[in-house]
Amino acid sequence: MSAPEILAPAGGQESLVAAVRAGADAVYLGAKGFNARRNAENFADLAEAVSYCHARGVKTHIALNTLVSDDELPALDAELEEICAAGADAVIVQDWAVAQRARAMCPSLVLHASTQMAIHNAAGAKMAEDAGFARVVLARELSLQEIAAIRQQTRLELEAFVHGALCMSASGMCYLSSALGERSGNRGLCAQPCRLNFRENGREYALSLKDLSNFKHLRALAEAGVCSFKIEGRMRRAEYVASAVDACHKALRGEPYDEESLKRMFSRAGFTDGYLTGKRTLAMFGRRREEDVAAEKEYAQMRALYRGEYHRVGVDMRFWADAAGSHLAASDGENAAEIADAAPEAARTAPTTAGRVRESLAKTGDTPFYLRDCAVELPQGVALPGAQINRMRREALAALLEKRAAPRPIPCQSAPLSIAPRCAAGQPKLRARFESFAQLEAFPVERVEYAILPAREITAHPQALEIPNLVCELPALLYPGMETNALPQGVSRALCENLGAVRLAREADLQVFGGHGLNIFNSLALEAYAQMGLASATLSCELTLRAATHMGGSLERGIVAYGRLPLMRLRACPVNRCHACPGQSELTDRKGVRFPLLCDARRYVTLFNSVPLYIGDKRLDGLDFATLYFTIESPRECRAVLEAFERAAPPDFPRTTGQYFKGVL
Prior knowledge:
Elements: E1 5-10, H1 13-22, E2 26-30, H2 46-55, E3 59-64, H3 73-86, E4 90-93, H4 96-105, E5 111-113, H5 122-130, E6 135-137, H6 144-151, E7 157-164, H7 176-181, E8 211-213, H8 218-224, E9 226-231, H9 238-252, H10 259-265, E10 271-272, H11 274-277, H12 296-303, E11 313-322, E12 325-331, E13 336-341, E14 345-346, H13 354-361, E15 369-377, E16 382-383, H14 386-405, E17 429-433, E18 450-454, H15 455-460, E19 470-473, E20 493-496, H16 499-507, E21 511-514, H17 523-531, E22 536-538, H18 545-549, E23 556-563, E24 566-570, E25 584-588, E26 594-600, E27 604-608, E28 613-614, E29 625-629, H19 635-646
Parallel strand pairs: 1-2, 1-9, 2-3, 3-4, 4-5, 5-6, 6-7, 7-9, 8-10, 11-15, 17-18, 17-29, 18-19, 19-20, 20-21, 21-22, 22-23, 23-29
Antiparallel strand pairs: 7-8, 11-12, 12-13, 14-16, 23-28, 24-27, 25-26, 26-27
Helix pairs in contact: 1-9, 2-3, 2-14, 3-4, 5-16, 6-8, 9-12
């Protein structure tokens, strides 16, 4: 088994140098746009950053892991061209449109599925594998056993986070930032409102997790099949990056590392490994405190880790001398350089020995090279100045470094950006999604196109199968081991909120409807899901209504037009009282606003918006359907909402229109 890769964040030039000099095997960084840390410094000159890394034997993974609008597709093409010209080793992707354009323009460009794709089971990994991805960045919420289970069912490379900030929500399924402040995490501008003081039953900061640190489990992760250890932190200081890379190296070698210094470098009341070990308790929660902040003295100590080059590139040298001159040939296995200099003179006192030459050649100094093998051939009784040998070594290594830094562009060609025209649609049909079977009590299901009910409710109430227009909603999160009984017997249609669920429904020969959790943000992504066999798809709730109604393609599309939208899907429950929990609770923010929490059969918890979305009094022409998304409403309230929509009446309750009329950043 080859040694796992240490993958470090590079939010700017100083962090890039720190990561490389501290010993990272690869770095991930953002270009000018379309990456999940748009607030980071990022890299205006991508080619220069890639060349710097390649010269030193370090791979570069470029983050293109945000959702892209139709208007931004030409700019996306330009960024792909820049990435290919720079010769990057891989791109990290969330949006299917990015994957499609990469396949069309630069098929040899390596694709990695971002953690923003929310791949957390083998079925999701297989979807990425079938689409040509080489690697998947696994969800942070997985346990060691769950990672091993995924490894057994896919050939994809597996990458896992081992250190850094923990998002409270499953990645790619968080809309809290856009709902509260229009800054979308799926667009790279998360404002981290989860770090504010949300209270649960008097307990403060109920959405703030401690930082992750799994350095103690690196050997177990490698044995589970993880090939890349990812350090989070493109928004953090260079000293943090260097210290985390150094600690990862030491942990891999079985050496002690200074965890207390790491905590002070950046932590939130310490670290947690709760997801990996399956201990998802309140001990996972914490926030940044004054005592967590490192002193300048410690920052200075960390800077020492990246003052000089990391000697990672082996070089073979051959030195020989004759009457014609002195010669040095150097090779790193791929590149070669040869230097000629003055011939040796007859020794007046002690002659130069082969050992002395080797000693001089081994002084690679502030370069990324180390002497791997050395052969020296000298005539007897000759003398060579040490300065001459050192000069030849410096010139040979400089020539090698220059060759290693030369651009290695990836073939890239222009490809027509064709989007199928939209088939005209009239007024949308209504669909209704229910949280519980009880909400159907007085609801006229014949007045909606489809009645959508969670799988757990269909299993608990088999009489639901008598509803002719029934759609089974699969869980938004299906961790390994949960897929087996996910589909109730007798259903013919499935609503899927994630990639894994799409595959499970297809394998069961069900009619597949895409949910808003698929984050469909543009026409190309919509077409990609059409090619996967979906019958219809709910578009992202972060789109404007204009963008949604003007999206091209032939696949039936719609939006959520009413309901408390899911803002987060949580595996670490902020309530954490399973023994005495009715399955429903709430969080209160610093302004006293209440956000409902609903538990899904102890598998995960969903945080919903404080007020329902309602646009029944707005024009929805151009959509095929609009979904009424019921959560905590009574049966009477469900029916009242339906009747209000049928009359296109304004609501008689507080409402939000979401992002449909303002959009997200």
